[in-house]
Each structure stands twice: as structure tokens, then as C-alpha cells.
Write a structure and sequence with these properties.
about 290 residues, alpha+beta, 5 helices, about 15% helix, binds 2-oxoglutaric acid
Length: about 290
């Protein structure tokens, strides 16, 4: 447990009732600088291939290089430093308090929401990454001060509690990127609250929690965030890259990293399935 971190029971009960927890000082100033530098190195192609990425000009300004991106999926597959950021003591302390002693990670995303870039429509992460025991959780780490103006996360407190996955559909709202939206849920936009965070702080949120983000207005600069997804290691993960279907019941995605405790399925080994790639955006017609 890190200094100043409340008791595990308090964390668990807050998470249970609201569906999210703030982790102040998730990254100390040195770790924050490392994560920011790593974001730039990734965007410059210095950590290896990212599907869909364009080569950065040698003389191009860092900020201009970053502005070409919206989101890099699975950066932890090529960046040891971002993987390190995902397994910090603060992550282990919070995740083991709210999920259990055995934790695995299966996804990371690096959002680079520069001025004018869109947000992401209402969704629940478990609708996209299905666990067997509703244990999915995300840790969203602010790499810049995240504000309403530059497109911080918004959550609907308690919306995870019914344990229902709401339907999803394509949406064509220019405020949002190409990902689908959840609809027909019993909450209004007015029920949502913004999660404004100083750089280095993080929010841990439940996989059933409805959340979204709005575009960056450009008035508070760039909004970078690193998001990592975790779950209980006891649950198998019926999640496969498109086209790699297997009979239900056998599905267990094994491109995972053990973050805490033991993996009861270690006998299966791990797999290298996911490759870093860019999120499709509207400029590209939302195609992948
Ligand atoms: O950072 C954002 O703009 C959206 C993040 C998000 O919705 C997620 O991590 O599931």
C-alpha cells in the first residue's frame, strides 16, 4: 500500500457503490516524465512498428508528431516503460483491494487527444472485453491535467450496479470517435460527472460503469492518457481478435500479463496475439 492510500476496505466499498476511485499521485513526477517521453518515442516509431502509423519526419516538432495520433492500442506490447507504468505499486494496491489477490492485464491504450480531437461516446468496457465474473477494471492515468475543456473522462456514478450490459450501436456524432455507443440505459447525460485530474493522478473504474469523453476544445492544451485494463486471473477471458473464433467454452485469451498473485491457468502458457495499432478515426472514414 502506498503512503496516504486509504484502507483496502474503504476503497472496496467506494468502488462497489460508485464504480470508480481516484488514485492521486499514481505516477510520481519522474514516472510521469518517463511516460510522456515514451508516448513521444512511440509516436516517432522509436519503439517498433505500429500498424497504420505514418513515419515521423526527423525535424518534425514533438507536438506535431503527437497531433497525428488519436489512440495507440496495445503500446505495452512494445514499450517496457509503459508496461512498467501499468504494474506500479499503486495499481497493484488498488486492484487487489477491489478485485482480489490475482490480477491479470490484457489491454493498454495510449490516448493523445490534441486540440480538436474527438471524445468517445457512452460505453461500458465489459461490452467489448467480456470477463466471466464481471471483474474488468480500467485504470485511466492522466499524462496531462485532464479538464472538462480538454476532454476529461465523464462517468455515471453507480451505473455499474445493475450489472447489465446495455445495447450498443454505431453512432455518427462528430463529437465522438468511431467506436460504438451504448444506448437505452436508464440514465441521463445530466447524471454524469466529470473526472478532472491533475497530471499523474488516475481513476480506476469498473468494467460495467458507463463513461464517455467529449472533444478537446483546445483551450487547455493536449490531453494524453494511458489506460490499462485488468481483471481477476481466476476468470477466463473469452476475447479474441476478430476472425479467430473458437467454440465458446474453450475461449481463453492468453495474451495477458500477470500483475499480482498467481495465474490459475499458467499451465496454458501465454500467447502473443495483439499488435500495436492505431484507432480508426473519422478522417479515415472510420474504417479499419
Ligand atoms: O480517454 C478517453 O477519451 C476515453 C477513454 C475510454 O473511454 C476508455 O478507456 O474506455
Amino acid at each position: 500500500m502506498t503512503a496516504g492510500f486509504p484502507l483496502r476496505e474503504v476503497l472496496a466499498s467506494e468502488y462497489d457503490s460508485r464504480g470508480y476511485l481516484i488514485i492521486p499521485d499514481y505516477l510520481d513526477p519522474a514516472a510521469l516524465e518517463i511516460a510522456r517521453a515514451e508516448a513521444t518515442a512511440l509516436c516517432r516509431g522509436q519503439r517498433g512498428a505500429i500498424e497504420g502509423a505514418r513515419p515521423a519526419g526527423e525535424h518534425e516538432d514533438d507536438a506535431d508528431v503527437l497531433r497525428h495520433y488519436l489512440c495507440i492500442h496495445f503500446p505495452h506490447k512494445i514499450s517496457a516503460r509503459l508496461l512498467e507504468a501499468a504494474r506500479r505499486p499503486a495499481a497493484v494496491a488498488a486492484l487487489t483491494a477491489v478485485i482480489g489477490p490475482n490480477i491479470k492485464m490484457m489491454q493498454s491504450m495510449l490516448f493523445i487527444k490534441s486540440e480538436g480531437k474527438p471524445g468517445q461516446a457512452w460505453h461500458q468496457d465489459e461490452a467489448h472485453i467480456p470477463t466471466r465474473d464481471r471483474s474488468l477494471a480500467g485504470i485511466w492515468i492522466a499524462l496531462d491535467n485532464a479538464t472538462v475543456e480538454n476532454g476529461c473522462l465523464w462517468v455515471i456514478p453507480g451505473s455499474h450496479r445493475p450489472g447489465v450490459l446495455y445495447p450498443v450501436r454505431d453512432q455518427h456524432d462528430d463529437r465522438f470517435d468511431c467506436t460504438q455507443e451504448a444506448y437505452s440505459f436508464p440514465y441521463r447525460d445530466e447524471d454524469a460527472i466529470p473526472v478532472e485530474l491533475p497530471a499523474g493522478a488516475a481513476v480506476l473504474f469498473h468494467g460495467y460503469l458507463l463513461h464517455r469523453s467529449l472533444p478537446n476544445t483546445g483551450r487547455h492544451g493536449m490531453r494524453r492518457a494511458l489506460v490499462n485494463h485488468y481483471m481477476s486471473a481466476e476468470s477466463v477471458l473469452p476475447w479474441f481478435p476478430p476472425g479467430e473464433g473458437q467454440p465458446m467454452g474453450l475461449l481463453d485469451h492468453r495474451d495477458i500479463v500477470l500483475i499480482a498473485g498467481e495465474d490459475p491457468y499458467a499451465y496454458k502458457g501465454t500467447a502473443d496475439l495483439m499488435r500495436p495499432h492505431l484507432r480508426a478515426d473519422r478522417d479515415g472514414g472510420c474504417a479499419r
